[in-house]
Design brief:
44% helix; 6 helices; 13% strand; 3-stranded antiparallel sheet; two-stranded antiparallel sheet; single chain; 7 strands; 2 domains; 166 residues; alpha+beta; Herpes Virus-1; rod-shaped
Length: 166
């Protein structure tokens, strides 16, 4: 995947790991990484599958002509390195990790799912966060009402004390 380095927040980290998280076919950041168990080169799953379709030799498993090799899901350490990359979404301006960036922010899905608040009609929220948002509003409103009730209760107690003292 071609990476827009301007959106990258932790650029120094990326420079340090770039070679380890680079697809040997497209030379972009790995998406759904696979790894040859012989030479340990990494490939995007989609890139590898497209490459395999173009190869006439069914025994050829790796680009590096590794013998007796298998291409398997990349180790967790590779995935963890990739998922520590942080991006600032150019659409919604949130800072997100790589996986979230690929799923929501790269294709503007982050703003496609934004709706107006059903309570105040001013705030904008993501549809996927609507349930939590509603719950937080309800809790906030309940706390306000409890505070109001508490004030009224204290006023009544004070009035009762005043009456009893007179």
């Amino acid at each position: 995947m071609e990476l827009n380095e301007e959106l990258l927040i932790n650029k120094e980290y990326y420079k340090d790991i770039k070679e380890m998280i680079q697809c040997q076919i497209c030379f972009g950041v790995l998406i759904s990484p696979l790894q040859c168990n012989a030479c340990e080169h990494n490939f995007c799953k989609m890139c590898y599958e497209q490459w395999k379709k173009t190869v006439n030799d069914s025994k050829k498993i790796c680009l590096n002509k590794c013998s007796n090799s298998k291409v398997l899901e990349a180790p967790r350490v590779v995935k963890n390195m990739i998922n520590k990359l942080e991006f600032k979404c150019e659409y919604c301006k949130k800072i997100v990790l790589f996986e979230g960036f690929i799923k929501l922010h790269q294709n503007r899905k982050c703003i496609d799912d934004i709706i107006k608040c059903p309570f105040c009609d001013e705030s904008k929220i993501n549809k996927s966060q609507l349930k939590e948002y509603k719950e937080s509003i309800l809790i906030e409103e309940r706390n306000k009402h409890n505070l109001e009730l508490s004030k009224i209760k204290n006023e009544l107690i004070n009035k009762e004390k005043q009456i009893n003292e007179s």
